[in-house]
UniProtKB/TrEMBL annotation:
Organism of provenance: Salmo trutta (Brown trout)
Name of this protein: glutaminase
Keyword list, A-Z: ANK repeat, Hydrolase, Repeat
GO molecular function, one term: glutaminase activity
InterPro entries: Ankyrin_rpt-contain_sf (IPR036770), Beta-lactam/transpept-like (IPR012338), Glutaminase (IPR015868), Glutaminase_EF-hand (IPR041541)
GO BP: any one term: glutamate biosynthetic process
Pfam families recorded: EF-hand_14, Glutaminase
Organism taxonomic ancestry: Eukaryota, Metazoa, Chordata, Craniata, Vertebrata
UniProt superkingdom: Eukaryota
Catalytic reactions of this protein: L-glutamine + H2O = L-glutamate + NH4(+)
Domain Glutaminase EF-hand residues, every copy: 52-116
Gene3D superfamilies linked: 1.10.238.210, Ankyrin repeat-containing domain (1.25.40.20), DD-peptidase/beta-lactamase superfamily (3.40.710.10)
The keyword Repeat belongs to this UniProt entry's keyword annotation: yes
Cross-referenced SUPFAM superfamilies: Ankyrin repeat, beta-lactamase/transpeptidase-like
EC number(s) given by UniProt: 3.5.1.2
């Protein structure tokens, strides 16, 4: 079927190839919101809403593939299929399309998400991405043949906030293996399933100060922590009864139905070149570190399988955001992990997650993170967002050269470091709140809209949660300016009164005198009255 150009563009938006949306139960629909949304996108009763809607949606950080918007996208898709040509929608149809997702859309368009000005934030992330892309050095891991096949030029960054705002730059759709980035995830699943006390009977909580694949135990003959190979192998033995498919199910839920796969070739390479891990396994068996009746070879096999799980930067960022959001996947709203499991995981990632660079990373970046020899860095900004960086070249410790640089530059620009003083560290940006400049700009624009009698602009301000009673430097509100600009007859309340009528009705003689004197000094021409009557008719359509 040949589609008109606009319809073809909308079809691309409505049919993302990488995602199968999950329908959610619709929340109750406030009667006023979809009408206001419709009027803010159009001046007429029939409008080409979808394209404007998609543009506005992208500016908030939401994707059309977001599972929470599945009902809305399905309705729009159906409207397109029912339309023979260009998609035109009236208010009733628009309300039907957005109704099931009205609460989420209200938050989005009123800038109530954790990152209010997402476009500006994404622009800063892009600048960091391109500046980091120029970093050279490091070597692609070659001790696992499948990893050695990746180009050193690959570089991608994806982020997902706790509200489900998404942004990606670079090679973010290329699958790669989690490798050691799976360690905090399997630990979180183990704590969620088995409990903290039981898990830590077999593994410690302290940084080892040694290489991640060292044959070493703590003074209690336990692996130092779950982020080194010995600890991860023991955790794998605890999870083995859940099976590979059980762990995959958890990871898919954490990724919110984004891509999670498996590389059998990498798994076979891991087994063939895993002499060091087999040595660790036998050492653990000798020291009786495994649970009773655990099969050491089966545990190692399971560990190799978990390391060979594939993600992309996009799906990895949603996993990280699930950790940032207390175990709740931001784009599905499903509670995947317990709050206790997430807290413990982030604590260990902060102290032990970056191999024997963990102390320096905690000092300079101050955020929980985990790296892997595939070149991945999974970074969590608690209560804000998750980030997945991927670039295969590694430094001498085994961390991604570009990934480390990006994380350092991120906290240099934004006050995300755990110990940044949010009140007094003025040199850094805080994307979590709107700046004073934004507020001042909104007030100025609001005043000019009132002065010119631009009812459509005023509706957009109200929809965007701008305080319509905000005052300027001279304590004037938009209503003051509305009066002073001779738009007094536009200020009609729903009972048909003007401000002058109300002043007379309630006996406000002083106000009556001011308004009457103003009308005497500035008489209105018939042409002006006709124009104001036209605007009044427009306003009545809204109210």
């Amino acid at each position: 079927m040949c589609l008109p150009p606009l319809q073809s563009r909308l079809q691309d938006c409505l049919n993302p190839s990488h995602h199968n949306p999950i329908p959610l139960s619709p929340p109750p629909l406030p009667s006023h919101f979809s009408r206001s949304n419709f009027v803010s996108l159009s001046h007429s009763h029939f409008v080409n809403v979808p394209l404007s809607f998609f543009q506005a949606l992208r500016s908030t950080g939401l994707l059309t593939s977001d599972p929470r918007l599945s009902d809305c996208m399905r309705q729009l898709r159906q409207s397109m299929q029912d339309s023979a040509g260009t998609v035109m929608m009236d208010q009733t149809l628009f309300r039907k399309c957005v109704g099931a997702n009205i609460l989420l859309l209200t938050q989005a368009f009123r800038r109530k998400f954790i990152i209010p000005d997402f476009e500006a934030f994404a622009s800063n992330i892009n600048q960091l991405y391109y500046s980091t892309q120029r970093q050279v050095g490091g070597h692609v891991a070659d001790y696992i043949p499948q990893l050695a096949k990746f180009s050193p030029d690959l570089w991608g960054v994806s982020l997902c906030t706790v509200d489900g705002q998404r942004h990606s730059a670079g090679d973010t759709k290329v699958p790669f293996c989690l490798q050691s980035c799976v360690k905090p995830l399997e630990y979180a699943i183990a704590v969620h399933e088995i409990g903290t006390e039981h898990v830590h009977r077999y593994v410690g909580k302290e940084p080892s100060g040694l290489k991640f694949n060292q044959l070493s135990l703590d003074e209690e003959d336990k692996p130092h922590n779950p982020m080194v190979n010995a600890g991860a192998i023991v955790i794998s033995s605890l999870l083995k009864v859940r099976g590979f498919l059980g762990v995959m199910e958890y990871l898919k839920k954490m990724a919110g139905t984004e891509y999670v796969g498996f590389s059998n070739a990498t798994f076979q390479s891991e087994k063939e070149t895993g002499d060091r891990n087999f040595a660790i396994g036998y050492y653990l068996k000798e020291k009786k570190c495994f649970p009773k009746n655990a099969d050491m070879i089966a545990a190692l096999d399971f560990y190799f399988q978990l390391c060979s799980i594939e993600v992309t930067c996009e799906s990895g960022s949603v996993m990280a955001a699930t950790l940032a959001n207390g175990g709740i996947c931001p784009i599905t709203g499903e509670q995947v992990l317990s709050a206790e499991a997430v807290r413990n995981t982030l604590s260990l990632m902060h102290s032990c997650g970056m191999y024997d660079f963990s102390g320096q990373f905690a000092f300079h970046v101050g955020l929980p993170a985990k790296s892997g020899v595939s070149g991945a860095v999974l970074l969590v900004v608690p209560n804000v967002m998750g980030i997945m960086c991927w670039s295969p070249p590694l430094d001498r410790v085994g961390n991604s050269v570009r990934g480390i640089h990006f994380c350092q530059e991120l906290v240099s620009l934004f006050n995300f470091h755990n110990y940044d003083n949010l009140r007094h560290f003025a040199r850094k940006l805080d994307p979590r709140r709107q700046s004073l400049d934004d507020r001042n700009k909104s007030v100025v624009n609001l005043m000019f809209a009132a002065y010119s009698g631009d009812v459509s602009a005023l509706r957009r301000f109200a929809l965007s949660a701008v305080d319509m009673e905000e005052k300027d430097y001279d304590s004037r509100t938009a209503l003051h300016v509305f009066f002073l600009a001779a738009h007094i007859f536009l200020c009609v309340i729903r009972w048909g009164n003007t401000p002058l009528d109300d002043a007379r009705q309630f006996g406000w003689d002083g106000v009556v005198s001011v308004l009457t004197e103003y009308q005497r000094l500035y008489p209105r021409s018939s042409e002006s009255e006709t124009e104001d009557q036209r605007k009044l008719d427009t306003l009545k359509v809204v109210v």
